[in-house]
Design brief:
The chain is an alpha+beta fold. Helices cover 29% and strands 42% of the residues. A hairpin with a 3-residue loop joins strand 8 and strand 9 (75-80). Helix 1 (91-106) runs antiparallel to helix 2 (111-133).
Length: 134
């Protein structure tokens, strides 16, 4: 087990994944953040997007909403507001959410509404991207 670390992915309403993992890729503001066993201790902000974790040589994709991750050499705890497996994503609903967010971005709005619309668009795009790879 020296080539693994303990991984917990927790959302507001469930434990998404709990167990050993070999690697983890998280969506962050600047792109993707990779984690391997023995990683230096840090905390990173998780952005809405596609996250992947590797267990027994197999990569498992998921969509993560915003949150953060505490990373140590032996364990990683990812706390996000929501996470979905590809088979839990409704393509029609994700496409409709994308279109609504794009429409809201076309209109003048407050800065708060603008950032909410951007976040909605990022979540919808991540869902479509992750579901499309399945």
């Amino acid at each position: 087990m020296a080539n693994t670390f303990y991984l917990e992915i927790i959302t507001v309403d469930r434990q998404f994944y709990v167990g050993q993992a070999e690697a983890l890729m998280l969506p962050i503001q600047d792109g993707q953040y990779g984690v391997l066993p023995g990683h230096e201790a840090t905390v990173v902000a998780v952005e809405p997007g596609e996250m992947r974790y590797q267990v027994n040589g197999t990569w498992y994709p998921a969509v993560a909403a915003g949150g953060f991750a505490e990373i140590t050499p032996d364990y990683v705890i990812v706390l996000v507001s929501a996470a979905e497996h590809p088979d839990e994503i409704d393509l029609k609903r994700a496409q409709e959410a994308k279109e609504r967010a794009e429409e809201r971005l076309r209109h003048k709005q407050s800065i708060t509404e603008y950032y909410n619309s951007k976040a909605s668009l990022a979540r919808a795009m991540a869902r479509l991207k992750t579901r499309g790879r399945r």
